[in-house]
Every structure is written in structure tokens, then in C-alpha cells.
Design goal:
about 500 residues; six-stranded mixed β-sheet; single chain; alpha/beta; elongated; about 35% helix; 17 helices; 17 strands; Rossmann fold; 2 domains; Nucleotidyltransferase, domain 5
Length: about 500
């Protein structure tokens, strides 16, 4: 297959070839190209002309509407992230109208957003498309907040974020415009639950990047779904019902002023969206805002721990060899947080890898707890695999486990996560990363925890922490790596190496 401009995006969940061959996407694209018209003069076309979908949009529809072997839609939820001005509203409106006309009888289609005016953007585009096309206006009846296909008993309505008033709906297709402006995840969850009685519902969020936190201080709906999609792409999770396509620069630290970087985040660059507009706006717009809206990047509101791209530059995709001298870093919790076990080889250029990370599964209930016995067995197994100089760990909460393992002869070393300890340890790993003094395996879980960590500075020093105290984003692997690296990088002659290799 020849290369399609703007495709694939930076992040794309894998769709089986068989599902793509059976996809309904080409039919949706054909409908849009045949009946949907441009509603406003733009770089992409003049008002009243038929929409001409680009190759990347055809591919996006093919992936979104892929089918399972039994003929039903493969996906139940989708998050599509693309920078401003790349035709999101027109594409969403076309999808809605296609479903209204060719979905099953009695279909219910909804446009949702953080407020009613935002929700009306996609709906208003669809309504204008009906007005501009004689065949569509012949078959569909227009109201202020609804479009009706009376022959099939199907309806398309616009809704806003007052989630408590949405009980009793039975949607087949929901289009969420600009997911990043949702104040919380309530409306998304209400609509998802309302779809439960349908045989093949689909909820599609089409958005640009935005804030990381919602009004409660938790990860915003958009950012949590972005993180979820990345986990699927990297193989951390397996959820074929969730589709994720997100355009952003390949390298987070890439110069946002570079047209090639802008092109990576904008599949319609120089086509649907004007390249000249970027030249002007990049000079007038603060970097954080430009990166968010025009490069589709989530920008941290706090000081990032490591320069963008620095951790990736240390990647060396290999495991720590069996039998070598190492330090283990352990950061434990019992329920809501994660529990991390990291291994770092000792030597001039230590190598960092993940032994295991226990995180609460998304579907787990409130009574989920870290499997303590499994954690203890994994530490014992690690001591059989490597020559463990130290197992460095914060004594908080896990004192019983440490006592048991120490009684068995394992080299437990308490490492309180105080400012006096963590400030120099954080600085030590920071300098090693910037000066090629450390390598790391590229484990996506460790990458995620490292990227979640930010610097906290107070009168006691600077150390890594979460961006918000009650954030659901984990940093435990990063903390364990800091502790283990600090000990592994310490010259052997300054530590007690007389402990026997435990077997």
C-alpha cells in the first residue's frame, strides 16, 4: 500500500487486518463524499461544495468502523485526538448523519460536549449539511435541537454536560466534541451506561489536547483516556473494544516552531489547515498554548522533572543480565496507589529495568489490594536471579514484609523518602540522564511513571512528586528507580558488599 499523507498518527491502536477488510468505514466515507457539503468557506473548500475526504480521513474511518468476525462493530468507544482546524466538526457531523440514515431503525444519535454551545457545533454543522443538500433535506426533518429520520424512527439530538438529566436515553452513536472541556467524566459514564442495551453501540470522542486535571483535581477525562489508549498501543493493556488515534509530534521536546513538527500533529497541514496560519500564530501564541492547541500535546502545568526527550535518549532495550551485581528499588502501597520493584545494575553506567509493577486494574473494585505474598515472592525470585547488593525501600507500611525477608537473609536497606535522601538522589539520576551516565530498558510502564513525575521545590530541597497530590497518575516506578540508582551508582568500596548471595 502506498503511503497516505498524514497517516498513521503518532499513537494508533492495532486493528486486525480482517476487521479492516470488513470495515464499514468506506461506506461512511462514500456517504460523506456524496451528500455532505462544506458549510463555511475555508482552506478545505468553499461553502456548498461537496466535502472531499482526504486519505488519512478514509483510513481513520476504516479503523474506527472496523467489524468483528460476527459482523458487529469491533469498537465500543473511541478517542480521536487531532489539533485544531483539521476538519473534526465536519467529520463528526458526517458520521452522525450517516448513522441517522443507515443505522438500525430506532437509532438514537447524540452530540455531547462540556456545554450546550460546544455541543451544538457538530450538531449545527450536520444541520447545515442537511439544509445545503436537496436529497438529505428531502429525507430528514429539522428541528431546533434535533434532526429526525421519520421513516426509520431515528433521531439525532444535541446534549450538554448536565449528566443528571440524561437518564432514560438509549443511544446507538454518541459523538463527544472536544472531550478535553468536560468538567468531569460524569456525562461520558452516563452515556456509556445508557448504551448497555444496544447490540453494537459506539461512542466517539473527537478532541484536541487540554488540561491534565479536572475540577476535582483528578486526571481529566480526556487525559485519562489518552493515557489508557497509550497503554493499549504499548501493550500494557489489551482492550480491542477501545480505539485510539492521536496525532502529536513524535518527540515531545521537538521544536514547536518547526513546520515538520507541526505537520506531525496536523494531518491536514498545508491542505485543510493553512501552513501560513501556523507561521503567524506561532509568533503570537504562548508556547504552552500553541503546543496544546496546534501540536495537540498535553503540557504539564508544573515543572517537568527531566527535559523532554532526555529519558528516551537513554533507551537501551535489553534486560539486566542474570547473575550481575544489582540494587533493587522497592516502593510499596497496599491499595489505591501502585507498588513498584525496579532493578539497577551496579557499575560505571548503571542500567535500569522494571522487575514488576502492581497497579490497580481499571475494572477492579474498592476492595482491591496489592498481592503482598506475590510481591514478597517476586523479591525472593529477584535475589535468586541477580547478585543483589541491596534492596532499598521506604520503611513506611511494609515493615512486616521487610522483617520477614531480612530474617531470611535478604539485604534489606531502609531508605526513607525524606528530603535529605531524595533531593540528592533525584539530582544524581537527573545528571546521569543528561550526561549519558545511565541506560534504561524502554519499559513503557517506567516511561509512563517517569513522565508523570514533576519537581517539587521547597525549603528542604527539590525532589520528584506527583503533579497533584490526589492525582491518579502513578510515579512509583520513578521513585523506586531514583532510590535504586542512588545506591547502585555508589562505589562498591563505600558499601557493605560482604553479604552473601542469597539462594
Amino acid at each position: 500500500m502506498s503511503r497516505v499523507a498524514g497517516w498513521p498518527p503518532r499513537w494508533l491502536t492495532k486493528v486486525p487486518a480482517a476487521a479492516l477488510r470488513k470495515s464499514r468505514g468506506p461506506d461512511v466515507a462514500d456517504f460523506i463524499d456524496t451528500f455532505c457539503r462544506v458549510t463555511k468557506d475555508s482552506v478545505g473548500g468553499r461553502a456548498g461544495e461537496l466535502v472531499v475526504l482526504r486519505g488519512w480521513q478514509h483510513q481513520l474511518l476504516r479503523h474506527t468502523f472496523a467489524e468483528r468476525p460476527d459482523g458487529r462493530l469491533l469498537h465500543r468507544q473511541a478517542l480521536i485526538g487531532v489539533a485544531r482546524k483539521n476538519g473534526k466538526s465536519a467529520l463528526g457531523a458526517g458520521m452522525a448523519l450517516d448513522h441517522l440514515l443507515f443505522g438500525s431503525p430506532g437509532s438514537e444519535v447524540y452530540s455531547c460536549a462540556g456545554d450546550r454551545e460546544q455541543a451544538r457545533i457538530v450538531f449545527g454543522t450536520a444541520k447545515r449539511m442537511v439544509e445545503l443538500d436537496p436529497e438529505l433535506s428531502d429525507r430528514l426533518k429539522l428541528y431546533r435541537d434535533a434532526i429526525e429520520h421519520t421513516e426509520a424512527g431515528s433521531v439525532y439530538k444535541v446534549l450538554s454536560a448536565e449528566a443528571y438529566s440524561k437518564e432514560g436515553l438509549n443511544p446507538t452513536l454518541v459523538l463527544f466534541d472536544e472531550v478535553h472541556v468536560q468538567p468531569n467524566r460524569e456525562l461520558w459514564d452516563v452515556m456509556a451506561q445508557a448504551m448497555g442495551a444496544r447490540t453494537e453501540p459506539l461512542m466517539v470522542g473527537i478532541t484536541t489536547a487540554g488540561v491534565r486535571f479536572d475540577t476535582s483535581g483528578q486526571d481529566s477525562l480526556c487525559y485519562s483516556m489518552y493515557q489508557y489508549g497509550r497503554k493499549i498501543v504499548t501493550g500494557e493493556l489489551d482492550d480491542p473494544s477501545f480505539f485510539f488515534a492521536w496525532w502529536e509530534p513524535r518527540e515531545p521536546s521537538a521544536d514547536h516552531r518547526d513546520p515538520m513538527v507541526q505537520r506531525e500533529a496536523n494531518p491536514g497541514f498545508g491542505d485543510i489547515v493553512s501552513a501560513e496560519d501556523f507561521e503567524t500564530m506561532v509568533l503570537k501564541t504562548p508556547e504552552a498554548e500553541f503546543r496544546t492547541k496546534r501540536c495537540n500535546q498535553f503540557v504539564a502545568s508544573a515543572t517537568a522533572w527531566l527535559p523532554a526527550g532526555a529519558w528516551t535518549a537513554c533507551k537501551d532495550e535489553r534486560a539486566v543480565p542474570d547473575g550481575v551485581e544489582v540494587c533493587l528499588g522497592f516502593d510499596g502501597s497496599f491499595n489505591n496507589d501502585s507498588t513498584a520493584l525496579v532493578v539497577v545494575s551496579c557499575g560505571d553506567v548503571p542500567h535500569v529495568d522494571v522487575v514488576e509493577c502492581w497497579e490497580k486494574p481499571a475494572e477492579a473494585g474498592q476492595d482491591w489490594a496489592v498481592p503482598i505474598v506475590e510481591v514478597e515472592d517476586k523479591i525472593r525470585e529477584s535475589c535468586r536471579r541477580w547478585k543483589v547488593r541491596e534492596i532499598v525501600c521506604d520503611p513506611f507500611r511494609w515493615a512486616r514484609t521487610y522483617q520477614i525477608l531480612e530474617d531470611e537473609g535478604l539485604p534489606i536497606v531502609e531508605y526513607p523518602q525524606s528530603s535529605a535522601r531524595m533531593t540528592p538522589a533525584t539530582q544524581r539520576l537527573y545528571e546521569a540522564v543528561l550526561n549519558a551516565g545511565v541506560t534504561q530498558s524502554g519499559d513503557p510502564r517506567l516511561d509512563r511513571h517517569i513522565s508523570n513525575a514533576v519537581l517539587k521545590q521547597d525549603s528542604r530541597g527539590t525532589r520528584i512528586t506527583k503533579e497533584a497530590k490526589n492525582s491518579a497518575r502513578k510515579i512509583d516506578l520513578a521513585v523506586a528507580a531514583v532510590m535504586a540508582f542512588d545506591r547502585a551508582a555508589t562505589p562498591a568500596e563505600t558499601v557493605d558488599v560482604g553479604l552473601p548471595f542469597w539462594t
